[in-house]
């Protein structure tokens, strides 16, 4: 039996050691092989008779097949890992060589890198990853710079606010507010009325009503700071309406302290009809001069999505006089709607009331809506445009000269 045990140990060493060395296995397999051999020996000692012979070659084949299966299962994952490690080593070598290689590469990117068919394809893929990483770094740096600039601006504004909050400036602001309020109070007694028609709530969405109220708030502030302010009237104004809620959001507790007149009555019930003029862009009549004895009405609505002719139809239904601003007479208008915001209308009317100068008043029209002011009468400009069109059509020079002589006779 001792000779048989010795033979078994030699067989196990000769069968296990080469396989372990070939597949890079650790010494943990040796106790397993040793226990298997000893257990088999013990079983053979108990079960086998001395007369029976042991088939060592068959046992050796069984042991080799089982160990190879276990070793192949255990070594399949390290082979993949070794491939990724080799790819990372090549990336490090290329980075040292000065090629465009990204700093951070994920396992998926490494796998796609390994799947590239050629070396040039690998270089292009790495260049793409490098540029992508570079763009991300630049975006991050720009965001940090913007954040630093914003923080610096906030610090500067806080410092300027602290300087502005001096005792003299606070006293100056409070006295100016008192002066503005005094002017507004005087306008409620002696000033010219200006009516805002608040009956367009049903024809606008909630967002459009909010925009309208913002423009009205700006108009009220502009009027309060004017030298000779209007007496503002909000007519057809109902409590718990969308207008009312939006005004409460802006003014809060100061809503009840505003020096304006708010009423549910229509303007025809408050003022005589012969003094009312409804300002609308759809009116066929053009306003020539500002009349201090008239009461002008402005529709409180956003004209972006309103159908044309709504305010004109309302004025005709009430039997009121209408007028439009002379935009075509003084401005070279671009293509588009000639509707102005409520705060722009307030600026224009205040300037007309103080100076009666249309050019100064129409400077508050946004410059994107017109090319410039008209230097000549519109009829002469139309004649010159007609001549330019004839020249573009390629007519004969004699006909052009005759047409020029007819339209511009010698004095």
From TrEMBL:
An individual GO BP term: methylation
Statement: the UniProt record of this protein carries the keyword Metal-binding: no
InterPro entries for this protein: MT_TRM10-typ, MT_TRM10-typ_sf, Trm10_C_MTase_dom, tRNA_m1G_MeTrfase_euk
Compartments, record wording: Mitochondrion
GO CC entries: mitochondrion; nucleoplasm
Catalytic activity: guanosine(9) in tRNA + S-adenosyl-L-methionine = N(1)-methylguanosine(9) in tRNA + S-adenosyl-L-homocysteine + H(+); an adenosine in mRNA + S-adenosyl-L-methionine = an N(1)-methyladenosine in mRNA + S-adenosyl-L-homocysteine + H(+); adenosine(9) in tRNA + S-adenosyl-L-methionine = N(1)-methyladenosine(9) in tRNA + S-adenosyl-L-homocysteine + H(+)
Primary location: mitochondrion
First and last residue of the signal peptide: none
EC number: 2.1.1.218, 2.1.1.221
Transmembrane segments: none
GO molecular function, a single term: tRNA (adenine(9)-N1)-methyltransferase activity
Name of the protein this chain belongs to: tRNA methyltransferase 10 homolog C
Classification lineage: Eukaryota, Metazoa, Chordata, Craniata, Vertebrata
Gene: Trmt10c
């Amino acid at each position: 039996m001792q000779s048989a045990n010795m033979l078994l140990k030699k067989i196990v060493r000769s069968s296990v050691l080469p396989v372990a060395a070939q597949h890079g296995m650790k010494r943990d397999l040796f106790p397993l092989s040793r226990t298997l051999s000893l257990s088999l020996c013990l079983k053979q000692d108990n079960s086998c008779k001395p007369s029976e012979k042991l088939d060592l070659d068959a046992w050796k084949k069984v042991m080799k097949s089982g160990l190879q299966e276990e070793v192949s299962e255990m070594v399949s994952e390290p082979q993949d890992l070794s491939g990724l490690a080799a790819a990372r080593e090549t990336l490090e070598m290329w980075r040292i060589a000065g090629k465009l290689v990204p700093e951070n590469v994920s396992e998926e990117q490494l796998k796609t890198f390994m799947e590239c068919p050629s070396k040039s394809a690998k270089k292009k893929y790495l260049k793409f990853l490098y540029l992508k990483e570079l763009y991300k770094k630049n975006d991050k740096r720009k965001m940090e710079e913007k954040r630093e600039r914003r923080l610096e601006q906030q610090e500067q504004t806080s410092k300027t606010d602290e300087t502005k909050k001096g005792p003299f400036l606070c006293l100056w602001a409070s006295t100016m507010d008192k002066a503005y309020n005094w002017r507004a109070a005087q306008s409620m007694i002696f000033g010219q009325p200006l009516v805002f028609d608040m009956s367009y709530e049903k024809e606008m969405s909630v967002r459009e009503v909010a925009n309208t109220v913002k423009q009205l708030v700006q108009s009220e502030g502009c009027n309060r700071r004017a030298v000779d302010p209007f007496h503002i009237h909000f007519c057809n104004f109902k409590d718990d309406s969308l207008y009312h809620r939006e005004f409460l959001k802006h003014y809060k507790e100061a809503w009840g302290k505003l020096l304006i007149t708010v009423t549910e009555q229509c303007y025809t019930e408050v003022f005589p009809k012969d003094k009312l003029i409804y300002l609308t862009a759809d009116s066929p009549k053009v306003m020539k001069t500002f009349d201090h004895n008239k009461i002008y009405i402005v529709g409180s609505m956003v004209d972006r999505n309103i159908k044309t002719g709504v305010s004109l139809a309302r004025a005709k239904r009430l039997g009121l006089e209408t007028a439009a601003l002379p935009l075509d007479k003084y401005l070279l208008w671009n293509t588009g709607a000639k509707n102005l915001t409520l705060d722009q209308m307030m600026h224009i009317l205040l300037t007309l009331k103080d100076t009666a100068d249309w050019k100064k008043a129409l400077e508050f029209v946004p410059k994107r809506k017109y090319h410039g002011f008209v230097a000549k009468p519109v009829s002469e400009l139309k004649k010159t445009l007609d001549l330019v069109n004839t020249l573009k059509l390629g007519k004969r020079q004699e006909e052009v000269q005759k047409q020029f002589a007819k339209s511009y006779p010698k004095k």
